[in-house]
Amino acid sequence: MAESETVLVTGGTGFIGSYVAEDLVEAGHDVVAYDLSTDDRILEKLGVADDVEVVRGDITDPTSVFRAVTESGATRIVHLAALLTTLARDNPRSAVEVNVMGTNNVFEAARSLDQVQRVAWASSAAVYAPPANYDGDWVDEEDLVYPDTLYGATKEYNEHQAKVYFEDHDVSHVGLRPTVAYGPYRETGGSAFLANIVEKPALGESFAVEYGDQVIDWQYVRDIAQAFRKAAFAPEEDLSQRIYNVRGEVATIREAAETVARIVPDADIEVSDEGELPWTQMLDMTDAQEDLGYDPEFGLETGFREYIDVLRAEEGLEPLQ
């Protein structure tokens, strides 16, 4: 294991941020969660609220970011704070301020403060063009980047500014391109149906879902957390590049529904093949496996089982064997 270090996690009280904090704590590191929200509900549910220092701050305020990095003594930053797809679309100016200038504040802090050895940060599979551009093939980091959302555009810009900070200012960084994370305590959003396909049957509710024959990357949140830790600590000499695809298990919506039905025998899920999803899901993650040692631990069934048991426990229901 790497020696214990202090890691600042921006967006650290959010869904993915809380799991990243938990993962880092379990790996023996000191964690500071930097976020506009000091609601540690998810950290509490994960059992690490007492082990994580929560610092309230605004990622768009450079003074606030510098102060948090300096006062925490952080040697690594995991930068997750962002406005996601739907919020970005509805609040375009804020999306640019948070996603682009907020990221710039993080890179500026890393450039100015010698203590910071690495910034691991969230890009997104949203930087890729819509799926029709790839002829159903696996997509790797060399393929066409042409986002059709503002969110994706901010992430693409961040890949460019990260490159500049690395080449011109020697700021060590690793950016990851995850798709959509699923797991307990996810906030609802544009991909809420991905949560409902598990959550509703787990609690005995019926659910109807479209897109049955379309492929989704089912990426369990604990695997994404593992990926960010490895991105933060991978030795420089192991990195063949700076931006990596990461994914979980690729399966159709119908296959996911069938998996839920195996776990929850009385699940009432109706699946149709209507509609078309606008995301590129088939990410080749060979480079992340080779360079970062990224190795997803949760397949569809194991991820769904843990997710369902947590949901049922929350509702006072028995776990499913």
Give me a quick take on this structure:
The protein is an alpha/beta fold.
Commentary on this structure:
- The chain is of the alpha/beta class.
- The protein has two domains: 6-180 and 219-245, 3-Layer(aba) Sandwich (Rossmann fold), CATH 3.40.50; 183-218 and 249-279 and 297-314, UDP-galactose 4-epimerase, domain 1 (Alpha-Beta Complex).
- It has eleven helices and twelve strands.
- A seven-stranded parallel β-sheet has the order 3-2-1-4-5-6-10, sandwiched between helices.
- Helix 1 (15-26) packs across helix 8.
- The protein is globular and about 55 Å long.
- The two termini are 34 Å apart.
- The mean pLDDT is 95.
Under CATH, the homologous superfamily of the largest domain reads NAD(P)-binding Rossmann-like Domain
Count of beta strands: 12
Strand order of the largest sheet: 3-2-1-4-5-6-10
Helical amount: 40-55%
Order of helices and strands: EHEHEHEHHEHEEHEEHEEHEHH
Q: How many structural units, i.e. domains?
A: 2
Main sheet attributes: strand count, strand direction, barrel closure: 7 strands, parallel
What global shape is seen?
A: globular
Poorly predicted residue ranges:
none
CATH topology grouping of the largest domain? Rossmann fold
Distance between the termini: 34 Å
DSSP summary: helix tally: 11
CATH architecture of the largest domain: 3-Layer(aba) Sandwich
- What would you call the structural class? alpha/beta
Mean pLDDT: 95
- What fraction of residues sit in β-strands? 15-25%
Radius of gyration: 19 Å
CATH hierarchy class name of the largest domain: Alpha Beta
